[in-house]
Amino acid sequence: MTLTAKQSYTYADLSRLMGLMTGDEKHGPAATSTMDALWVLYDRVLRVTPERMGDPRRDRFLLSKGHGPMAYYAVLTAKGFLPAEWLPGFGSYDSPLGHHPDRVLVPGAEIGSGSLGHGLPIAVGTALGLRAQGLDEPRVWVLIGDAELDEGSNHEAIAFAGPAGLERLHTVVIDNSSASHARPGGIAARFEAAGWSAATVDGRDHEALYAAFTAPHPGRPRVVVAQVEPKDA
Amino acid sequence: MDTMRDRFAPVVSQLLDEDPRVAVVLAEIGKDGFAEAQRKHPDRVINVGIREQLLIGTGAGLALTGLRPVVHTFASFLVERPFEQVKLDLGHQDAGAVLVSAAASFDWPAGGFTHMAPGDVALLDTLDGWTVHVPGHPDEADTLLRHAVAAGDDKVYVRLSMQSNAQGLAVDGAHFLTVREGRAGVVAAVGPMLDAVLAATEGLDVTVLYATTVRPFDTASLRRASETAGADVVLVEPYLAGTSTAAAGDALADVPHRVLGLGVGRRELRRYGDIDEHVAAHGLDAGSLRKRIDGFLGERVQA
């Protein structure tokens, strides 16, 4: 018997995979806030696999919130993009896995991120580029944090994408109440005012996330605000 | 005579017709020139509005899907305002684009310092892997724009200016040209500075090089020139003085050499007026250049 049989991971394995990076079974809020949304996306929504990374028709997932990427690396490992053997080296000189991801080093990562406010504008360009090439199937997803939303570059992208009718564009905002100045009227209202389709759901509820991620939104970009426990709680 | 900027939309519109990879990203500035191209290629001529961070991010996203984005606005808003996007969305993502600027160092002096960008090339110089074209004539701008778009997925900056030499030369998008040969020094003129440099060095025994592609810096041409003209080098650049002195120094690191960097001064003049007045204020008119070159090279330069 060979050892090539692919290990099959489930959601229950993510905590252990993250433990390989942190040496700890308990993980900080920054690390786990994105975990459920990422899992639902990669497990049930995104049409992307390690084998399809060179396929122009694959869905694109852009992790803009590059801080605390352990859940991202764990999900990429569970879905076969990364070998689990890489995880213990997290952040070390010889590891491709940094405390902020680098697309050049991390298989499956569409962008490098860490500096806040870059992912959504790049996602706008990605959606435009796919459209210009007649690639009508791929959907573009970008994940940002509620405090990251403070960056003006995101507001440039939000204000453009709505009127431009970028229906292939999807944003997930992980809201763990970390913005110092809460947005009057709530996060979804900011997007709705710019012409986006919006939903706000419990960011730990997989069925609610899935329903929000897959709801039709013809002619408009879509935002899903995934609320999780406050960062400082 | 038309201007370099007048060539931009026609040349790139033609490239849009010829190459389905080419896309244009604008932030209001220059959109009128692309009105017809936008009708023909609505998905590949994109105006994001007055949003310069989105301008660069959008170009990067287009590049990541395999397109060749040409991104344009005034230099201040293309390189300086969204500098971190240039650094990360293109450089760190390993994505390419052609950035084409207008307004240069002081193309609209009456507009004041907000629309001046003498530091653009020096700023790009902090990043790795950029090709920088500084045409000195509309015909050269035409040629270099085509080189830039054709350069695979490279990161290329094309700096268009209202300042121009009277005649265009046959530039190749890589090398310095030798315009005059002498034995007592090398004067390298960048882009629109050539005419003033030729007037300033009239009768001097110097080699005059003409540079329209300044990054990568043509080390071989400078070294070759110094073999007969000596390693006293004057650089005359239409942007921040000294931008290329380190590159020239590196080119001549193994031989004794002296380098004088002339260009736009760092101090903000807080003056309006016209281009010629600013050229003079920065000591870049032929008469001022002559004095500074004479002062640097000394008496032996007199032919």
From the structure above, extract its key features.
heterodimer; A: 233 residues; alpha/beta; five-stranded parallel beta sheet; 8 helices; 31% helix; 12% strand; disordered N terminus; B: 303 residues; seven-stranded mixed beta sheet; five-stranded mixed beta sheet
Summarize the structure.
By secondary structure, chain A is α/β, with parallel strands linked by helices. Helices cover about 30% and strands about 10% of the residues of chain A.
How would you sum up this structure, described in words?
The complex is a heterodimer of chains A (about 230) and B (about 300). Chain A has about 230 residues and is α/β, with parallel strands linked by helices. Chain A contains eight helices and five strands. Chain A has a domain of about 150 residues: 3-Layer(aba) Sandwich (Rossmann fold). A five-stranded parallel β-sheet of chain A has the order 1-2-3-5-4, sandwiched between helices. In chain A, helix 8 links the parallel strand 4 and strand 5. Chain A is globular, with a radius of gyration of 17 Å. Chain B starts with a helix and ends in a 6-residue tail after the last helix. Chain B is built from twelve helices and twelve strands. In chain B, the strands form two sheets. A seven-stranded mixed β-sheet of chain B has the order 2-1-3-4-6-5-10, with helices on both faces. The mean pLDDT of chain B is about 95. At the A-B interface, helix 5 and helix 6 of A face helix 3 and helix 5 of B.
